[in-house]
Predict the 3D structure of the following.
Amino acid sequence: MEKKDYYEILGVDKDAGKDAIKKAYKKLALKYHPDRVPEDRKEKYEEKFKEISEAYTVLGDDKKREQYDSVGHNAFNQGFGNSSSGSRNFGGEDLSDIFRDFFGSQFGGNPFRNTHHANVGDDLQYKLIIDFEEAVFGCEKEIEIRKNVSCEFCGGTGAKDKKLEKCDKCHGEGRIEINQRTPFGIFRQVADCDECEGSGKIPQHKCNHCNGNGIVHEKIKIKIKIPQGIDNDQVIRVEGKGDAIKNGKSGNLFLIINIKPHKIFKRDGEDIYMDFEINFSQAALGCKISVPTLTGTKKIKIASGTESGTIIRLKEEGIENINRYRVGDQFINLKIRTPKRLNRKQKKLFEELAKLEE
Ligand SMILES: [Zn+2]
Ligand SMILES: [Zn+2]
């Protein structure tokens, strides 16, 4: 079979840069990730996912890409020849590593993890935007998401009166045998029964609310505790709050934290940074200033003869680490404000000063 062009698979130009290739892959990989696709399209998506991963393994690597550009698929036939189902080894590289790079280890090493456990709902992802202070001190949030939930009218059974009877098709076994005729003979394959979806039971009377599916797609509210010290792009895993699935376990919900910038503080890990302006005379003579901290204001002493760009460190006035093993510091960058407009008196004083300095 003729192999498809890798550039075509990723939908990028032949002269696309590394970043563009990475971006295109990431987008497609998220779309076709086997953990997140509809049950009925899983196999098709898995094939597609492998295809794009294979393309990226080559085009994302300068050396392999060069080889591919000059000799095409022939350069890789050995490694990629038959990527039979379940194989995730493309040209000697474990795909899970690529995945970890992109999505962090929270998403699990093996992207095909769920394919053979059909009874786990899809994992969901949600970008949660919180305020700077909410991240620093922790908070409780309520989010609203649309997802598959177990039908409350039938308790997820799909049966109006919650009464189930033995499935006729599989005689309650949940599994059926399929005989497949091939040129090499007949192969017997065991698969989940499509009538009862592997449970061996079907409703006597279908539940009207979920049409017998046991699952409905609804907007629901979820309360989430955000731990103090959480940082941008960190992920909170909420067990069992992903998509529900009939006769199975719900997937997980992954909250990706996005922190709004603060109007004064900048954050770097547990430390916070800020600029603070003082004027000429304050810098020259020394003074006391009131600076904002995370917990209020603090009076600090500025020594006489302080230069612009002096950094003052307030120990442990930063953010407490999410694991509570360290409290960061606050750094204040002092900037000396040069007066732009002087009144007559100020001008006179500066002139006198200038004379003294000559
Ligand atoms: Zn059945
Ligand atoms: Zn129902």
